[in-house]
Known about the structure:
By secondary structure, the protein is of the alpha/beta class. Helix content is 61%, strand content 14%. The strands form 2 sheets. A 5-stranded parallel β-sheet has the order 2-1-3-4-5, sandwiched between helices. Strands 6-7 form a two-stranded antiparallel ribbon.
Amino acid sequence: MNVIIADDDPTMLAILGAVVKEGGHSVVAAVKDGEAAWAAFQKQEVPLIILDWEMPKLDGLGLCRRIRESVNSDPFILIVTGRKTRDDLLKALDAGADDYLSKPVTPDEFAARLRIVERRIQITGARRQAELELRRSRYLAGIGETSLALQHEINNPLAAMLSHASLLEAGMVDDSEKDEALATIVQQARRIGEVVKRLRQIEQPRSVEYLGNARMLDIGPSQGDKAK
């Protein structure tokens, strides 16, 4: 896991970096102020950022807010600071921090917290992947249901249109029947137009059973339309 660390205390910066590396992770930037941490994050977005609260140029909370407001990624942000009150904790969380660790911090304490953070990042990543797969499966299922609905609603009028148009094109319709054939074509075209219109107006799509276990999108007239 790639990590950015920002702390204006060189000793703390060295301790945090050493523990991160001992945990099997990579420190891609170890900097002394929030602006430098922001520049490092813009260069390489990482899953974990460890920040001191009070730093020159841009403090930890200011950097938290900037990250949450400015980027699409969602890194885990751990604030490490000498502040310990409940109000301080709430301020850190309100700014966008995910967790809070009070100084003084021993290497063992930080290593234990780092393992917890790592598990939380893994769980969050797994959950997001599962949500992505669910959205994809629903999207693909929706495509299938829509395809069946369009096939069901459009095939019959389209077949009638093509049939009459072919007869007219081949000169196989008597003059006395041409008006009726043209009227049929117009009528079926309007049926298809109504299907497309209903498809555009669907606000709460629902699926219905079609054949066996297959389902399709219900694009028939709404109850309100039927009542009219």
